[in-house]
Design brief:
Blueprint (H helix, E strand, L loop, with lengths): L1 E4 L5 H9 L3 E4 L10 H10 L3 E4 L18 E4 L6 H14 L9 E4 L4 E4 L4
Parallel strand pairs: 1-2, 1-3, 3-4, 4-5
Antiparallel strand pairs: 5-6
């Protein structure tokens, strides 16, 4: 799978995902850190990458209609430290083998994954 890691997720998590055999770009790799969200999601879309983020702005399906993207995984976690994000990222990575993410927003919490699609 191809992933774009937003600046609010550490390189430790990006490296973990790479170790699982995935192709990972970070916003730092692409000099997009500090850039507007629209530029970040456009870079992910251009390369057909799934965006992983802690930024709740990307969970707004009116602003970021899921069908326009390879997928968005938004982590809505009580704690956003590396250990918490690492624990949370394991579930969606495992599901990508059996569930289609293209055109979807996955909202990942400590206990569940909710899938949203724009129904327009």
């Amino acid at each position: 799978m191809l992933f774009e890691i937003d600046e609010n997720i550490s390189n430790i998590v990006a490296d973990f995902i790479r170790e699982k055999g995935h192709d990972v770009h970070t916003v730092y790799d692409e000099n997009l850190n500090g850039k507007p969200d629209q530029q970040v999601i456009a870079a992910a879309a251009k390369e057909n990458r799934i965006l992983l983020t802690l930024d709740s702005d990307f969970s707004n399906i009116r602003n970021y209609p899921p069908e326009k993207y390879a997928g968005i995984i938004f982590f809505r976690l009580h704690k956003q430290d590396n250990a918490s994000v690492m624990r949370a990222v394991v579930k969606p990575l495992a599901l990508l083998n059996s569930m289609e993410i293209n055109g979807s927003l996955w909202i990942v919490t400590e206990t569940e994954i909710r899938v949203k699609q724009n129904l327009n």
